């Protein structure tokens, strides 16, 4: 209820409220000020409401006091049960965990007011499974109640946990949830073979790595706790077989490690042991985490090819052994029980020259050709052995034959066999060191002896000194040598080896006398001079000089002839007038333009002056003399007529001269002329086709060519009319 101090109870004041729920959830009596709730309130939805109250004059509706604010608080009652909002719950705990091991925690929520009474105080308890697990009544932590949890026996449990408010007192509300607890695995179970013996069989022809069989040890654990490795415990089995682990199935794979022999042993007992890879030290007292079984492997028989004994053969033979001599014997036997006879042969591709033969029954190797160790010191051949009654059973081996050396090659002087000395060499000077090559290779090593050949025993120029290390030195015996008197000395040397038998050879050392400087460095030897003299005799040198002189004279004659011809041509070309075609790009003025083409350009080759009319007549001093003489009589004509007649007469003279002289080339053949094309009615204007007698040509068509060719038509038509008149 709200009440104003100015209210005298006469009903003159009216009370109003506004704010949250005013008029809907809460209503007020305007006269008394009593506030009533119109519906049931829920504290869990809204804990309080804020409203404002106002006292007004009933008649004027004027506020009598300032508006005041007040709060309506909803008081809690225990009307909400505890709820497990995070369910369903799933937890896990390792097997064999000790009592009191924490598994997980559950939490229940109560919507009631925790600050008012015990409505929100929750306690926990186990409804189902209380023998295996317990729950803390205040915290909700679930713990193990026993220590013998075994995953292999039961791998999961379901509990029902109850939460009660009012601290478990009478009248309290409660809620429950189901908790699933999974028992996780630990490595507490050792591997065990289901059988104590396994039997397999394999052929003796099985290659290395061939699988024999598979065995598996069972392990009740799961995951990585079942990972195991396998071992072969007995030495014999470990030598012949190998065991490995299949990572997916955890099976033991037994394979062949070495070739098996049925004839040697037919049954093998292999002890295989399985061991856990991940052993938990907490459970070692439970027993050994390993187990063993016996794998019996039976070897079956197989028809095998012959076997060589020993498998690789090395033989030796003297290189001087005679044909058919025994080199050695190869031996192969059939390893099978029937011991079939063996036949031998040589692979032809390894003995292309048929140096060796083999007895196909005994395997004896003999010589088919004479040997030479210096040509080939070793021979490698392949021998085949096959069963006589089954040729498909073939084996082969490599036979290496070493050729033992025999002293059959004499020693020889090693290159170079030449030496040089200075002319001023002193007595006792070492000029050359001799070494020897011998194709033989005695087992005790080489030993060579050096002496001068008997024909050089009385030599007064040089002496030989045996150094005793398979070399010898050549020294001078006198002072000074003259290459003009003798420039080459030949010194025969006898070399003997140590045998047996001792062989010898004589080699010649060539000693040349050379000119040297003050330091003893060789400058020149007579060898070059002798070579030149031997290559070119005096007669050959004279013949070479004569040939060179003749070539020079011919070149001079050719040059003189060319100069003479060039001078003759220049004298003739001084009066040479060649045709010139002058090209203009300007267009004429039509039929009335009679000066469109300047004829003076045609005379520019010989520097003709322009012919001008005057009292003295045209100036012709630059023309050739024969043209001047002819043109003196024509000066009486007009200047234009004189210009055309002189030009016409000059061209005719040159054409006639060119036609009659067969020794000169047609110079105008090198000129370039414009040509209208094959369809033009006009013929070529070149003077190449011009005949000496122009009366045979009809030039009347030139008058039909238009004003551009008017002067050309006048030039040829005037001359043509004069010839007809004559």
Automatic annotation (TrEMBL):
<keyword id="KW-0130">Cell adhesion</keyword>
<dbReference type="Pfam" id="PF00028">
    <property type="entry name" value="Cadherin"/>
</dbReference>
<dbReference type="InterPro" id="IPR039808">
    <property type="entry name" value="Cadherin"/>
</dbReference>
<keyword id="KW-1133">Transmembrane helix</keyword>
<keyword id="KW-0677">Repeat</keyword>
<protein>
    <submittedName>
        <fullName>CAD22 protein</fullName>
    </submittedName>
</protein>
<feature type="domain" description="Cadherin">
    <location>
        <begin position="194"/>
        <end position="308"/>
    </location>
</feature>
<dbReference type="InterPro" id="IPR002126">
    <property type="entry name" value="Cadherin-like_dom"/>
</dbReference>
<keyword id="KW-0812">Transmembrane</keyword>
<dbReference type="InterPro" id="IPR015919">
    <property type="entry name" value="Cadherin-like_sf"/>
</dbReference>
<dbReference type="InterPro" id="IPR027397">
    <property type="entry name" value="Catenin-bd_sf"/>
</dbReference>
<dbReference type="InterPro" id="IPR020894">
    <property type="entry name" value="Cadherin_CS"/>
</dbReference>
<feature type="domain" description="Cadherin">
    <location>
        <begin position="85"/>
        <end position="193"/>
    </location>
</feature>
<feature type="transmembrane region" description="Helical">
    <location>
        <begin position="540"/>
        <end position="561"/>
    </location>
</feature>
<feature type="domain" description="Cadherin">
    <location>
        <begin position="309"/>
        <end position="413"/>
    </location>
</feature>
<keyword id="KW-0106">Calcium</keyword>
<dbReference type="Pfam" id="PF01049">
    <property type="entry name" value="CADH_Y-type_LIR"/>
</dbReference>
<feature type="domain" description="Cadherin">
    <location>
        <begin position="413"/>
        <end position="540"/>
    </location>
</feature>
<feature type="domain" description="Cadherin">
    <location>
        <begin position="4"/>
        <end position="84"/>
    </location>
</feature>
<keyword id="KW-0472">Membrane</keyword>
<comment type="function">
    <text>Cadherins are calcium-dependent cell adhesion proteins.</text>
</comment>
<dbReference type="InterPro" id="IPR000233">
    <property type="entry name" value="Cadherin_Y-type_LIR"/>
</dbReference>
